[in-house]
Amino acid sequence: MMSSETEGPGSGSRRDFLRKVGIYGAPVILAGGAILETAARAAATPVETCGEQSVAAAVVSSQSSMSLSSATSTTNGCTVDPLLTLEADLATLEALTPPRGLLGELELDAAIAALKLATHLPYWETDYELVPKTGSLVFAAIADAALALSLIANPPAAVTGVISDLVTVASTLANTAIGSATVSTARLNAANKAFSAGVTAGTKGQYVAAIADYGQAWADVSL
Fold first, then answer.
1. Amino acid 100: pLDDT
2. Is residue 5 part of a domain?
3. Full-prediction pTM beyond 0.90?
4. Phi/psi of residue 194, each to 5°?
C-alpha cells in the first residue's frame, strides 16, 4: 500500500525541503475532508532516450516496490527522459476515464493540474536539467501528483504506472544534478545522503517521501 509518510532516514532534510516549497508547493484541494495536493502520469513505462550524452540512474520498479542503482552511461546509453516522461504521463492521465466517485475525479484532476505545472517549459533548461531558481517547484508538483494519485481507491494500472514514473523522474533529475555538480564536498555529501534516503523510502513504498528526498538531493547541489 502506498504511503505519503515522511519519516525515516533523512527525514529532517526532507521536511526542510518540503517547508521551503510550502507543503509540497502545488495547489491544495479540499474534498470531503481529504486534502489533495496535485500532480500526475500514465504511460505504462517511462520514455527512454539513447545517445552519447552522459546520464545517470537505472531504475527497476514494479507496482508494489522500487529500487534504484546509480549508473553512468556515456556510449549508447539509455536513460529516462524526465520531461518527455512527464509529458507522456500527463497525456495518459488526461485520456483516462475518471474514477468513480467525487474524490476519485478530484484526485485525478489534481494530478493533471500538478503535471501541467511540472512540465511548464520555463522551469526546464533541458529535458534532464531544471532551472535552479524554479526547479524546486517541479519536485513539489511531482510529489503532489504522487500523493493525489495514491489516494485513488483501486487505481487502474495506468495510475500505478504513473506513480512509478514520478519516482523515476525525480531520481533521474537528482542523480543527473549530482553527477554534474561542482560544489563543495560537504554539499555533495549532503546530496548523496538525501539521495540514499530517497532510495530507501522508495523501496518501502513511501513514494511521496522518496520524491521529497530526491528533491532535497537536487537542491543540495543546485541552489
1. 73
2. no
3. no
4. -65, -40
pLDDT at res. 38: 29
H or E segment and range at residue 98: none
Instruction: For residue 1, tell me if it sits in a domain.
Output: no
- Looking at residue 17, its pLDDT comes to 55
Cell of 188: 555533495
Q: Looking at the chain, list the stretches that DSSP marks H as alpha helix, in order from N- to C-terminal side.
A: 11-21, 82-95, 102-118, 135-150, 157-180, 185-203, 207-222
Q: Report residues of the chain scoring pLDDT below 50.
A: 1-11, 19, 21-46, 48-78
Q: Give how many domains the chain has, as a whole number.
A: 1
Range of the domain at 23: 11-222
Report the alpha-carbon distance of residue 168 to residue 60 in Å, rounded. Answer: 9
Contact predicate 14/213, CB 8 Å? yes
Q: What average pLDDT does the structure give for the chain?
A: 74
Q: To 10 degrees, what angle do helices 82-95 and 102-118 make?
A: 150
Q: What is the pLDDT of residue 223?
A: 87
Q: Is residue 38 part of a domain?
A: yes
Residue 137 in domain: yes
What H or E segment, with its residue span, contains residue 60?
A: strand 55-61
